[in-house]
Structure formats: C-alpha cells, structure tokens
Amino acid sequence: MDRITRSLLRAFVSENSFEALAEDIAFEHFAGWLVTSDHYSETFSTEDIAVGSGGDCGIDCIAVIVNGCLVTDPDEVEDLEQTNGYVDATFVFVQAERSTHFLTRYQGTPRNHQHLEVTGSEKA
After folding, report:
1. Host H or E run for residue 63
2. Is the residue at 38 inside a domain?
3. Which of 55, 61, 73, 91 could form a cystine bridge with 32, CB 3.0-4.6 A?
4. What is the pTM of this model?
5. DSSP state of 119
6. Torsion-angle region of residue 54: left (phi > 0), alpha (psi -120 to 50) or beta?
7. What is the tally of structural domains in the chain?
8. What domain range is 66 assigned to?
9. Which pLDDT does position 113 carry in this prediction?
C-alpha cells in the first residue's frame, strides 16, 4: 500500500475507532466508505455495509440505496415504496484490494463493471 493511501486509512481508522480491526478488514471498511460515499452523501456506519468474511465471492461491502435512503433491512424497501409510491434503487458492490500491483486475475470485461439502473414500477 502506498504512503498516501496508508495515511488516509490511518485517519479513517482513527476517526471511526477501528483500531482493533486488522488492517485488511479496516481497509475493506475504508474502501466501502469511499465508494458508497459517491452514491450516498449522508453519514453512515460502514458496519451497515461490510459483508466480507470469506465465502462471499470477494464482495467486501454492499450498499443498497433506495429512494435516497441507505437500506439495511428488506422491510425498509416496502416502507419506502408505500411512502413514495416508487422504488429507485442503487446497488453498490465493493471488492477491496490492498496490493500495490494490478493482478490480471481480477480483471473483468467491461460489461462486468457497468452501472445497473432498474426503472419502472409494478403495482400488485
């Protein structure tokens, strides 16, 4: 990890009281926070989006943002749909890598890195 990233990670760990976390886990939280913050501007805990624990296909964080709200419980989606009359969902998947080298085994095709947008509504 380069000096700048390590410095930013240290600041993030200190600000979030993550000193007890191993560096790799803290980095997963940091990466999740960085990427999710591009889609959700409110304050949130990375504990709500961190899912990495092995056997998870390499996904370290998942954020589900529905109608501008970070959702942590499936029931919230239904509540937001009833309140707003629609569902506008953004799914953020994060796989953090601390390596200083680009590993081609993680390289995917461009279609694997597209923004997925689902529109429309269906009333029962």
Report:
1. strand 61-66
2. yes
3. 61
4. 0.76
5. -
6. left
7. 1
8. 3-113
9. 43
